[in-house]
């Protein structure tokens, strides 16, 4: 990858990269973060917000 393509990728996917870094930090800080119940709860909350945002 060239410098230009890395910058383009970072500018297009910066939010995704930030989300992945945040998930990694939270998983390391709290072992209960990556449990199935917590991930289901986060998914349900995100779905409600997505539905409200699309309305």
Question: Which short descriptors sum up this protein?
Answer:
single chain; 55 residues; mainly alpha; 2 helices; 84% helix; 0% strand
Protein described:
The protein is mainly α and 55 residues long. It has helices spanning 3-29, 36-54. The model has no long low-confidence stretch (mean pLDDT 86).
Radius of gyration: 15 Å
Q: Ranges with pLDDT <50 over ≥5 residues?
A: none
Count of distinct structural domains: 1
Tally the beta strands.
0
Specify the overall morphology: flat
Mean pLDDT: 86
Counted by DSSP, the helix tally is 2
In percent, how much strand structure appears in the residues?
Answer: under 5%
- Helix % is over 70%
| Helix/strand/pairing category | mainly alpha
Biggest sheet architecture: none
Distance from N terminus to C terminus (CA atoms, Å) equals: 40 Å
Order of helices and strands: HH
Short description:
84% of the residues lie in helices and 0% in strands. It is mostly helical. The chain has one domain (3-54).
Layout of secondary structure:
Elements (H helix, E strand, L loop, with lengths): L2 H27 L6 H19 L1
């Amino acid at each position: 990858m060239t410098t230009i393509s890395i910058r383009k990728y970072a500018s297009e996917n910066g939010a995704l990269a930030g989300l992945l870094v945040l998930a990694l930090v939270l998983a390391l800080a709290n072992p209960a973060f990556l449990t199935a119940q917590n991930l289901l709860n986060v998914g349900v909350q995100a779905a409600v917000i997505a539905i409200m945002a699309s309305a």
